[in-house]
Write a structure and sequence with these properties.
The complex is a heterodimer of chains A (109) and B (114). Chain A has 109 residues and is mainly β. Chain A is globular. In chain A, a hairpin with a 5-residue loop joins strand 4 and strand 5. Helix content of chain A is 0%, strand content 55%. In chain A, strands 2, 4, 5, 9, 10 and 11 form a 6-stranded mixed beta sheet that branches. A 5-stranded antiparallel beta sheet of chain A has the order 1-3-8-7-6, with no helix packed on it. In chain B, strands 2, 4, 5, 6, 9, 10 and 11 form a 7-stranded mixed beta sheet that branches. Chain B has a 4-stranded antiparallel beta sheet with strand order 1-3-8-7, with no helix packed on it. Chain B is globular and about 40 Å long. The chains are: A mainly beta (109), B mainly beta (114).
Chain lengths: 109, 114
């Protein structure tokens, strides 16, 4: 079993749709969690850190469920520019980040 | 400013060449990382430097040799690479190497080994 698992998708949604991604992690000692987005042939860019109380940034909401060991990312009112691969990242040991394989989102007009 | 810069953007080299990748940040971060990313795969950690000392080496072949001349610079020296080493090489930095530190990535060097 992978340490961090994501649904690879692809998710194809129309503009304006709401879409949610889940990410599960296997190590209960994991301490911090992030969502990055990566555009084709570009570097990963931090989208959000994920806090246990959940956090929101505009159209994006991240949630952490420690009991079930998953994090989620909700995107509301999808834009064409949201098309990207979304990477779930989990930090367990200092200096080591474990990446999920990524979920591909395509937003269509 | 969360900028990490990398040079060159693209590099083509033969299997007998020696080349170096460079990474720089001026955010005062004390941890720097090298990752390798193949197409449609997530980044794979290669090395971590914390306070200019190598703290993690993920069993990377010796044909890859990292160097951290100072807290702002990170190099990756390449020698006798194989075609399967062709990938995007990403540098990242973070405030520290703690479990809660957020990593910021540079744009990467796209390496092709012929």
């Amino acid at each position: 079993r992978k340490e961090v698992e994501q649904d690879p998708g692809p998710f194809n949604v129309p503009e304006g749709a709401t879409v949610a991604f889940n990410c599960t992690y296997s190590n209960s000692a994991s301490q911090s969690f992030f969502w990055y987005r990566q555009d084709c042939r570009k570097e990963p860019k931090l989208l959000m850190s994920v806090y246990s109380s959940g956090n929101e940034d505009g159209r994006f909401t991240a949630q952490l469920n420690r009991a079930s060991q998953y994090i989620s990312l909700l995107i509301r009112d999808s834009k064409l520019s949201d098309s990207a691969t979304y990477l779930c990242v989990v930090n367990t040991n200092a200096g080591k980040s474990t990446f999920g394989d990524g979920t591909t989102l395509t937003v269509k007009p | 400013d969360t900028e990490v810069t990398q040079t060159p953007k693209h590099l083509v080299m033969g299997m007998t060449n020696k080349k170096s990748l460079k990474c720089e940040q001026h955010m005062g971060h004390r941890a720097m990382y090298w990752y390798k990313q193949k197409a449609k795969k997530p980044p794979e950690l290669m090395f971590v430097y914390s306070y200019e000392k190598l703290s993690i080496n993920e069993s990377v072949p010796s044909r890859f040799s990292p160097e951290c001349p100072n807290s702002s610079l990170l190099n990756l020296h390449l020698h006798a690479l194989q075609p399967e080493d062709s990938a995007l090489y990403l540098c990242a930095s973070s405030q520290g190497a703690g479990v809660r530190d957020t990593q910021y990535f540079g744009p990467g060097t796209r390496l092709t080994v012929l």
